[in-house]
Design goal:
37% helix; single chain; seven-stranded antiparallel beta sheet
Length: 168
């Protein structure tokens, strides 16, 4: 009788640890880019200001970078929990257990195009303006590019991803 209660509890405990451990493992790998690195990788006008550079735990460890020209409403946006106005780059990190988990995520990408030379597998989505990849150790990295009037967001995302792979 006790065995029938303890075994399911053990399994539940393991599942909880795994589900909590995945974001924690990814958290250990998050690296915020310096403003110098960001400016070298992303087309930011020399006279634009880096308005936001933060890494925080959302659903997964996420780094957000926003830049642009001064806007009198930025302080209010930040106070209300938003981001300042401007161009944005986000990097999201998640720890998968295996490649199949990554494949399941990618199944929601209707326009995924393979990207060579980044991680084990990488894809670009024009609709999402996002590059997604998985590394040998199952770290998933998403690079989302939201830059107004940028002709080639894919190249920018690839450059950022390549940089992140060298510092991880």
């Amino acid at each position: 009788m006790i065995e029938t209660v303890i075994n399911p509890l053990k399994k539940l405990g393991i599942l909880v640890l795994i589900s909590l451990g995945a974001p924690l493992a990814a958290q250990d790998t998050v690296t915020a880019m310096s403003e110098t690195d960001l400016r070298a990788l992303v087309p930011i006008p020399a006279d634009a200001t880096l308005k936001l550079s933060e890494c925080e735990m959302k659903s997964y460890p996420t780094c957000t970078y926003v830049w642009g020209y001064p806007d009198e409403d930025d302080a209010m946006r930040i106070e209300l929990g938003g981001s300042p106005s401007g161009d944005k780059l986000m990097t999201i990190f998640a720890q998968a257990r295996n490649i199949q988990e990554f494949d399941r995520v990618l199944s929601s990408y209707r326009d995924a195009v393979p990207v060579e030379g980044l991680g084990v597998t990488a894809v670009w989505s024009d609709m999402r303006k996002q590059l997604s990849l998985i590394t040998e150790d199952s770290l998933v990295i998403h690079v989302n590019v939201d830059i107004w009037m940028l002709e080639d967001p894919r190249t920018t995302a690839e450059q950022v991803a390549a940089f992140l792979l060298t510092v991880q």
